[in-house]
């Protein structure tokens, strides 16, 4: 016999952010197009906040996403795949938590690549702090350029 949960205090759904579903990182926001990635490295603008570098470019996407993101951890500095994957997970999580800063304040479509430049394994707090500063610097720079 299966007992049903009759406690009204327990919620069955997972917690949602105040902005709805803005804290997710869906597949449509992941940058995978080779041509756009190449264009980022050749034509993109740079911002740097140790240990992360942001390369971005104003582009148009076929779908309705405003921003597409890729993260990179260099094989030269992190020989083990486990370490590279860990660094990329930290950067994706820091971006996911801080992306409402950007989505609510930009106009246009952008492609981002976050490059990890540090030599040592970072902590989440270090990556999160750098990500916040980078995204704020991006907003200041882009808002300044659109006003001119």
From TrEMBL:
Catalyzed chemical reaction(s): Endonucleolytic cleavage of RNA, removing 5'-extranucleotides from tRNA precursor
Region (Disordered): 1-27
EC number: 3.1.26.5
Biased composition, class Polar residues, residue ranges: 1-22
Keywords noted in UniProt: Endonuclease, Hydrolase, Nuclease, RNA-binding, tRNA processing
InterPro entries, per database record: Ribosomal_Su5_D2-typ_SF, Ribsml_uS5_D2-typ_fold_subgr, RNase_P
A Gene Ontology BP annotation from the UniProt entry: tRNA 5'-leader removal
Cross-referenced Gene3D superfamilies: 3.30.230.10
Presence of keyword tRNA processing: yes
The keyword Nucleotide-binding is annotated on this UniProt entry: no
Family of the protein in this entry: Belongs to the RnpA family.
Record-linked HAMAP family: RNase_P
Assembly notes: Consists of a catalytic RNA component (M1 or rnpB) and a protein subunit.
Name of the molecule in the record: Ribonuclease P protein component
Native species: Flagellimonas zhangzhouensis
Organism lineage string: Bacteria, Pseudomonadati, Bacteroidota, Flavobacteriia, Flavobacteriales
